[in-house]
Amino acid sequence: MTNAESSQLSRDDLLLASAFLTALTATLAALFIGEVLGQMPCTLCWYQRIAMFPLVPILGIALWRGDGMARLYALPLVVAGLALAGWHSGLTIGLIPEAVAPCTQDGPSCSGPAQIILGIPIPYLSLAAFAAILVCLILPKGSRA
Hints:
There is one protein chain. About 65% of the residues lie in helices and about 5% in strands. It is an all-alpha fold. Helix 2 packs antiparallel against helix 6, helix 4 runs antiparallel to helix 5 and helix 5 packs antiparallel against helix 6. The relative contact order is 0.18. Keywords: Chaperone, Disulfide bond, Electron transport, Membrane, Oxidoreductase, Redox-active center, Transmembrane, Transmembrane helix, Transport. InterPro entries: DiS_bond_form_DsbB/BdbC, Disulphide_bond_form_BdbC, DsbB-like_sf. It is a multi-pass membrane protein. It comes from Rhodobacter ferrooxidans.
């Protein structure tokens, strides 16, 4: 292998790097919203954070070490986060009855105008982040010849 070939990332490495950068961006955004802007997350947002935050070190270490098997460790967190974000998005659009909504009048809520970033509600952004990470982790690998 030449030096030019060894310095290029493979398709799998690029997908893993994309998953890592998506998780890092989502984590930093959640921390910015909570710690800098002072907006308290609702219950479902907390659960989504529990699924997203560990993805940063898992995917980062996997990328650094070139460990493709770490994808298996990340997948359960991604699927759980995707399910939570899907449920949360369903609550936001009104597909799920208000009686089971975790955002109450007494506590933090994700339904206010302060919970919209770039014109998109935070639950949709979370859903998009988890979906993008899932796609990056499950796309088929290159030729196995």
